[in-house]
Specification:
The chain is mostly helical. The chain contains 15 helices and no strands.
């Protein structure tokens, strides 16, 4: 399954990569200068609490993946500040960020779950149903990763109900995608497909179909598994149109990988090879080493399939 743009998606997709940083005393980059400005804002006690909290949350959005260690320190500062200001919502946001960073840094999943359960407790107290639904969705993703599919389905179902009570239909679509992913992972394709299709329908109704390329890709992959070649080709094409329009460097490689695999299994060896090279070119831009390895393994399989067997 290809995930959506949620915390649960990142739980499934992110691997830690060692990064070497080159320091220079000459000047700050634009990004560094911007981050220094943000730090000045959240540390300035003369500013309104709302401004300080906004600076922290904005920093998370841009920097968590790139610098999780510093962001973990910031989330602890955020949590202490929220307690000091008696702002329970910000406490929950700080803890949610900690849970995400714990996952990125390879903490035991039991520790990540403990923090998410604290977040759920706060959102329950505040009767914040959207926050509670999002946290249940995230916790379900952890359980799914552990292979506890029944518990994951239970939490996803709770999240689905909560999002529906708040008319948060994009949240509903996210959960539908995640439930479908469980069924797809255990090869219950006939159960997975309706969930993906319902999610696509929500994106269309919300006039947000331009963001639904990953869902069309998921359905295309399922159609390859059940042997519906015509539908697979149509949905691959729809996925490509949407992803290419956004120049989506995250999901386009997924498209190339799955379509290449589809072509390989249907003896379109030359076409598969072209797609593999296109995918590697994109991944070189993003530096996603894990994905590059996956493509090279697929390429190796392609070569083995085309070489004459040894007698």
């Amino acid at each position: 399954m290809i995930g959506s743009n949620s915390f649960s998606k990142i739980l499934k997709k992110i691997k830690r990569i060692a990064v070497f940083l080159l320091f220079t005393a000459v000047t700050l980059t634009f990004s560094q200068a911007k981050n220094e400005t943000s730090k000045n804002i959240w540390e300035d006690e003369s500013l309104a609490d709302s401004i300080r909290f906004k600076a922290i949350n904005n920093y998370y959005t841009s920097n968590t993946n790139g610098d999780p260690n510093f962001t973990l320190t910031l989330s602890k500062f955020h949590y202490k500040l929220a307690i000091q200001k008696r702002n329970r919502k910000e406490e929950a946001l700080a803890l949610n960020e900690q849970a995400f960073i714990f996952y990125l840094l390879g903490y035991k999943l039991v520790e990540v779950k403990r923090v998410l359960q604290e977040v759920m407790s706060i959102y329950t107290e505040l009767d914040n149903r959207n926050g509670l639904a999002s946290t249940k969705n995230n916790l379900a993703a952890l359980l799914q990763e552990q292979g506890d599919y029944q518990s994951a389905i239970n939490f996803y179902t709770d999240a689905l109900h909560l999002f529906k009570t708040q008319n948060n239909y994009m949240g509903v679509a996210d959960v539908l995608n995640n439930i479908a992913g469980i069924y797809q992972s255990v090869e219950l394709y006939d159960l997975a497909l309706p969930y993906y299709e319902e999610a696509i329908g929500i994106y269309k109704k919300a006039k947000a179909e331009s963001k639904s390329g990953f869902l069309w890709l998921n359905t295309a992959v399922i159609y390859t598994k059940i042997g519906n070649i015509k539908a697979a080709n149509e949905n691959f094409q729809r996925a490509y149109t949407l992803l290419k329009a956004k120049n989506d460097l995250y999901y386009l490689p997924e498209y190339y990988y799955h379509l290449a695999d589809f072509y390989k299994n249907n003896d379109k060896i030359q076409d598969a090879g072209i797609l593999i090279e296109e995918g590697i070119k994109l991944l070189d831009k993003t530096g996603n080493l894990d994905k590059i390895i996956s493509f090279k393994l697929l390429k190796a399989q392609l070569i083995l399939d085309t070489e004459p067997a040894l007698v």
